[in-house]
Amino acid sequence: MSTSTRRFAALVAALMLAFLIQARGPFAAADISSAYDVRILRDRWGVPHVFGKKDTDAAFGLAYAHAEDDFKTMQLVMMAVGGRLASVLGPKGAGNDYLVHLIRLWDTVNARYETDLDPRTRALCEAYADGVNRYAALHPRETLPGLGRVTGKHIVAGFVHKMPLMVGVDGVLKELFEKPKTAATRPIDSMLAASFGHDAPSRFGTGVGSNAIAVSPRRSAGGETMLAINSHQPWEGPVTWYEAHVRSGEGWNMTGGLFPGSPVVFHGHNENLGWAHTNNYPDLVDVYELDINPDNPNQYRYDGAWRELEVREAPIRVKLLGPLRWTFKEEVLWSVYGPAIRRPHGVFAVRYAGMGDIRQVEQWYRMNRARNMSEWEDALRMATLPMFNCTYADREGNILYHYQALLPLRDEGYDWSKRLPGDTSRTLWTGYLPYGRLPRVKNPASGFVQNCNNTPFRATLDPENPRAEDYPKSFGIELRMTNRALRALELFGSDDSITPDEFYRYKYDMAYSKESKMAKLVARILALPPSDDPAIKNARDVLARWDLRVDPANTGAALAVTCHTIIMKGRERAEVADVPERAIADGFAKAAKLVKNAHGRVDVPWSSVNRLIRGTTDIGLGGGPDVLHDVTGDLMKDGRFRGKVGDSYVLLVTWDRNGKPSSRSIHQYGSATLDAASKHYADQSPLFARRELKPVWRDESEIRANLEREYRPGEEIAQRP
Predict the structure, then answer these.
(1) 494 and 616: one domain?
(2) Binning pLDDT at 50, 70 and 90, where does residue 197 land?
(3) What is the CA radius of gyration of the chain?
């Protein structure tokens, strides 16, 4: 090779390198790890314990550790926040990207980042972003094209992005884009309708929910205070639980669960206190039909005068085949109520609780660092979370159930469950019910509180419950009872001397209450007219003998759960009494045939049907939909259920009579949420199937006694052979 050829090749190589650096979005070439004093200690289950000199050090290390286990999901979260998910996932990401533009996510974050967040919170988020960037810089082959440099604003935006999804805005948009049901006027309409809520379980589904139970020394056998943190998240995806422990020299010492992209623990415990979240379902979203000026499609009537709609175009880039991308522009509107959408059947505005607030991460950060009940409630009073029940316990023996929600103060002259007139300030609510007036139960004489996605008016034993009549119907506060709540009240309410072992057994209860939907459905099936079909007769006999339990060896559970899955599909919010008899009979026959054909018998042991499947791991399970040991799966073609949601990360905490904490936990898979090559990909699954819990180590001496490896971010790269 001639000298000129070599020089040309070198020039090309340099230009290529420069291009790649620019394309990757300039991740710091320099090692920013030196700016952070942090060590990551992985215990023998692979759980990261992140030790930092300062909170920012710990946040940097937390991001790096989480990226090691699930960098792909973290990146998808960042792409979603940036409105670029469709460029990676194709059409199913288009709804997300449209939503980002519609709610003006980045307008809000950019305008309020410096003013609404305190400096410590911004520093925490920026340190976490540095951790993500450092991992990306060291692992370019894992980094998605177009990711770009992550900033503290991206981390904050991640929280803002999730709030409208949590309150159900995506469901509203799905409905608007699905109607009218005649042919959509544009191909993009169908794409958006299909992508809203893609792969997301129903907010009201039987298996989607959580359990939270707190017991005070008044009801415990040995003066203990106990807390069950038991959220039912999907087992895979952007909102699957990740277990971590962060500890800094500034006093942050938190163990618990978080999602990809979060610099704080969402729920868990420190040495002094802990809490659990469960979903609640008040009415937090309103839809308004705007009165459009017939002479100007961009004007709407409001309080007797025409107002201008703010009109923008949202560019949405969609991946098609291979490297092909298609960019289309979709109109997004803004009204006095908030975002608005033009459809063939009208123009509709949407208003939801929590619009414009970016302080969610700060509230959780303050809850993480709280040292007592007073500080924790001070954080909760920030009222940035539009929904979530909070169940609290601490070393002093305090317990609390609090119905956290941003309940709009609405004009009672309207039916807020329906579409509203969008031409009057009477329907424009601007305030929320004050914190102190929300439903709550604090240190009840009963000695326990619970919430399993049920009404707040049955949090404990009467007469200490809040009263439904104290709250107007416009709040839409739910009145329903889940089976899990019924069983929690039956078990904890009937035992006035609960031991830690009993607390564990009650949490893993696998029975349906006689008042549950499952029991009522079985009663409806058994009340059907007798059938001459031998297979139906046999199936009916199996159900008649069933004891309403879903233990692994139970021989009636498979048929019962299959019946419930088939008959109640699409009827999650309906009462069993409202299901037509024909649907009951047809569903029962279909379920009986499916179980018999798939397994050769109708009375097949439940664990043969109810499965945890993860890579090469295929394990039978107990538990089932809407029992306290909740395992809800997809019904597969082979007649088995593949676990998908329910018990996932479980954390049980006990403070003894002297206030010393201890805790145990389990994850349905393991700490390596996405790395199939890791030994921690499914190493906790056998324990999960046996309903066993592993110890949670928080003292450094205990962690080191169970240490797998210790390193600083980036050191593991240099240590590889």
Answers:
(1) no
(2) low
(3) 27
Task: Say if residue 153's pLDDT is above 60.
Answer: yes
Same structural domain for residues 607 and 463? no
Model pLDDT, residue 23: 38
Give the DSSP H/E element, type plus range, for residue 561: helix 557-567
Percent of the chain with pLDDT over 70: 93
Q: Which of 600, 622, 644 is the last residue of a domain?
A: 622
pTM: 0.92
Q: Which of 221, 191, 499, 226 is nearest to 320 (CA)?
A: 191
Q: What span, in angstroms and rounded, lies between the C-alpha atoms of 408 and 461?
A: 28
537 and 603 in a single domain? The answer is yes
Strand partners, 655: 225, 661
φ, ψ (nearest 5 deg) of residue 715: -65, -30
Q: What sign for the dihedral angle of Cα 498, 502, 507, 512?
A: negative
- Euclidean distance between CA atoms 329 and 344, whole angstroms: 18
Residue 376 lies in a domain: yes
Instruction: Report if residue 259 sits inside a domain.
Output: yes
The residue written with tokens 């420190």 in the block is 270
Distance of alpha carbon 575 from alpha carbon 408, whole angstroms: 28
Task: Round to whole Å and give the CA distance between 214 and 392.
Answer: 7
Give backbone dihedrals phi and psi of 708, rounded to 5 degrees, phi first: -95, -45
Q: What is the mean pLDDT of residues 463-477?
A: 97
Q: Which helix (H) or strand (E) holds 490?
A: helix 483-493
Same domain membership, residue 530 and residue 479: no
Query: CATH no. for residue 588?
Result: 1.10.1400.10
Tokens 């007797």 label which residue? 304
Residue 22 has pLDDT above 70, yes or no: no
How far apart, in whole angstroms, are the C-alpha atoms of residue 377 and residue 370? 9
Place of tokens 């370019």: 140
- Evaluated on CA atoms 267, 105, 419, 187, the torsion sign reads negative
- Both tokens of residue 18? 């420069």
On whether the CB atoms of residues 36 and 130 are closer than 8 A, the answer is yes
Q: Are strands 209-215 and 253-258 parallel, antiparallel or unpaired?
A: unpaired
**8 Å CB contact between 704 and 29:** no
Tell me, yes or no, whether 581 and 462 share the same domain.
no
- Domain holding 530, by residue range, is 517-622
Element containing residue 114 per DSSP (H, E) = helix 105-116
Average pLDDT over residues 368-384: 98
Reported as a single tens digit per residue, the pLDDT across 57-68 is 999 999 999 999
Identify which of 239, 169, 176, 188 has the alpha carbon closest to the alpha carbon of residue 210.
Answer: 239
pLDDT band at 33 (very low <50, low <70, confident <90, very high): confident
Closest CA to 341 of 196, 167, 548: 196
In this predicted structure, what is the pLDDT of residue 610?
98
The Cα–Cα gap between 407 and 417 comes to: 14
Tell me what the mean pLDDT of segment 585-590 comes to: 97
**Phi/psi of residue 38, nearest 5 degrees:** -145, 145
Instruction: Give the residue-averaged pLDDT of 11-32.
Output: 42
With cut-offs at 50, 70 and 90, classify the pLDDT of residue 208.
low
Domain presence at residue 490: yes
pLDDT interval class at 17 (50, 70, 90): very low
Cβ neighbors of 494 (< 8 A, separation 6 or more) are: none
Task: Please say which residue of 507, 527, 547 terminates a domain.
Answer: 507
Residues 492 and 526 in one domain: no
Backbone angles phi and psi of 451, in degrees to 5: -145, 125
Tell me: pLDDT of 159 over 60: yes
Distances (CA, A) of 373 to 184, 341, 562, 719: 54, 44, 44, 45
Look up the CATH number of the domain holding residue 235. Answer: 3.60.20.10
The pLDDT value recorded for residue 193 is 79
Question: CA-to-CA distance for 218 and 593, rounded, in angstroms?
Answer: 51
Spatial distance between the Cα atoms of 259 and 212, rounded to a whole number of angstroms: 19
List the one residue out of 239, 233, 197 whose CA is nearest residue 76: 239
- pLDDT of 202 reads 38
